[in-house]
Amino acid sequence: MLYLYAITDRPATPMPNGFAPIGPDGCDPHPYTLVYQDIAAVISPVTAPRVPPTESNVWRHEAVLEALMVERAVLPLRFGSVLPDVDAVRAVLSARYVDFVASLRRVCGRVEMGLRVLDTSEAGSWKSEVVRHPVPDGGPEEKGRAYLLTRLEEERRNRGSRQRAEALATEIHATVVRLAVESVVQRLVTPRLLLTAAYLVERERAAVFRKEVEHLIAVYPALRFLCTGPWPPYNFVASDTMPDARVLLHRSSRENANGYS
Is the whole-model pTM more than 0.85? Predict the structure, then answer.
């Protein structure tokens, strides 16, 4: 059985080495390429059809991808992708060849940068707490009126706060997206998380992207910024080559270790 890491271009480029084995059996850890025309699958042998999604295995998967992306365009495959033999891998390369080539051209020379923006200030949440007005001593009609006034005030406050938060998220995104060729953006994911986004950036502009985020940190001292990358282009490949949640959880754990600025 063969474990699949990625689809790459430049199949003649020597493979990096020094990786730890993936899976429970300690088999030969050195990935190699199975070439099909001008692309290749990066694979290594395993003895079981399922690779446990342990932290160490996910790190090893990621380590191979990050080493590959230094000199190649990389389409990361799902963590845990296993095919029975070389013929099965070659069949996938043949069937998906046109799609793979198009995706490799899309990400060639580019890396993914991640950005999250968090508002931890007391005024930052666009979803306010309910303001409790004193309940009048009158009958049900007066109490009902007081309740409606409370909800209207809450809705008005939330609407204004949300509009301000959306404007802020849009302004921050507009500042960095000019450095990217593509982006995947979510605004106001939670009342505190203003922006979470991935940007496809030319490799040589990754440092400029980080500098721009540093400038934003100075401009918006009340916000907390988390800039990560460069990563393989997880968010800019077809959905069936995307990593599953286990890889994303691993990335999240690394981000949490780095912390916000």
Answer: no
